[in-house]
Each structure stands twice: as structure tokens, then as C-alpha cells.
Design brief:
Order of helices and strands: EHEHEHEHEHEHEHEEHE
Distance between the termini: 53 Å
CATH superfamily of the largest domain: Tetrapyrrole methylase, C-terminal domain
CATH architecture of the largest domain: 2-Layer Sandwich
CATH topology of the largest domain: Methyltransferase, Cobalt-precorrin-4 Transmethylase, Domain 2
Number of strands: 10
Helix content: 25-40%
Number of domains: 2
Strand content: 15-25%
Number of helices: 8
Radius of gyration: 20 Å
Strand order of the largest sheet: 3-2-4-1-5
Length: about 240
Amino acid sequence: MPHIYFVGAGPGDPGLITVRGMDLLSRAEVLIFAGSLVNPELVARSSARIKLDSWGKSLEDIVPLMIREAQNGALVVRLHSGDPALFGAIIEQMQLLEEAGITCEVIPGVSSLFAASAALGTQLTIGGISDTLIVTRPAGKTLAHDEIHELSAHTATMVFFLGADRLDEITGKLQYPASTPAAVVYHASWPDQKIVRGTVADIAGKAAEAGITRSALLVVGGVLDPSGSGHRRSILYS
């Protein structure tokens, strides 16, 4: 039966793609990748006879090619940035492929969420500070209403995707104290990675001064300052 692989490319650093992902990428005959969101070095490592940048293209532009090539026996890889499960929009592609009799397999990748926490030198959950992680995004073209105000009442660690150009709006909805630590990580794990630290009160202004308006995550919570936020030693080492 024809088969297509949806592969997570990782956050940016080519060394962070999984072993399985790299194996499929190296053997792919058809590669469809997510434009500038995927490091071009990864695309260059593929010897696929067809390489298609999906940026700006509709499903009608992409899926027929995937179907045709898979039905002809080609190894087809759909390369998504980060992990396909987070804001990856793979379900709509998979549904169309499965309707055409093609099976799909998802190969997970390292999300920029975790590359950001690594860059910040912290954990996203820390005993005594936050055992809960909320991953969300602000309202936009594909989301009519967000729940930032309601979700922030939990004072859990929060990570925001797709909102680097709307930090004032996001922080204005947060119910955290103004002094709560916050950080913006641009291009986590890429060579031009940039980190801006601050608080809920000033992070939007600091990020703007640094020229960050896209391709960045906002992290909010006491985990960014464990020593000042009630951290206790894990029972694993007690």
C-alpha cells in the first residue's frame, strides 16, 4: 500500500533531527518541506529527485503530487518544522491522503518549545514552582478567540507560539503579577538564536528593542528564575 512519512525536522539545528527522521530524509525520493521554517542544510542533505517548498502553496498544489508519487512507489517525505504535532496542520493533509488510499506515518521531532527551554537553561516544570505547562497561541487568522486570560489564572508555565509580533497584546491579557519572569527566544537552536529576558511588565518592549517580531517563543513563569520562585529539591535526589 502507498505510504507517506510526515517527519519532524526539529527546531533548526540540523543535529537535532531524530535518527529515524534523518534516515528517511536521506532516502527520500520526493521531499516536500516547510520553506524557511526548515533549515536549508537539512534540505541540502537530501538527494530527492523532487524537492518542493510548500511555502505559499495550497493543499491542492501539494497533495496531488504526494498522491501520484506515492502511488508510483516513491518514498515521499513531508518535512515539517519542529514536531508535527504542535501547530503543524498535518491532519488535513493526512485525511486527504487516506481518502486516496495512502497510509501515513508521523515521525516525531524536537519542538522549538524544548530547544527554547534548553537555550534558557531551565526546565518547563519544576517542583514547588510549576508542575503544569500550558502551550497556546494568540487569536489570529485561524483562531477567532484565545483563552490567554483564562488560562493564565492557573499561574502555570506558559509558552506562546505564533505571537512574537503581538507581545503587548499577549502580556496585557495575562493574570500573572507584573514581576513574573518572562523570556523571548528567537530562532531557538539556530546560529542566529537570540534570547531576551525580562518580566511580564517589560518583555514586550525589550523584544521590540531587540527587533524580534517573528520566529520566536514567549515563555512566562517562575521556572525562568528558580532560585527566586520557591524551588525545592526533587524527591528523585532526596
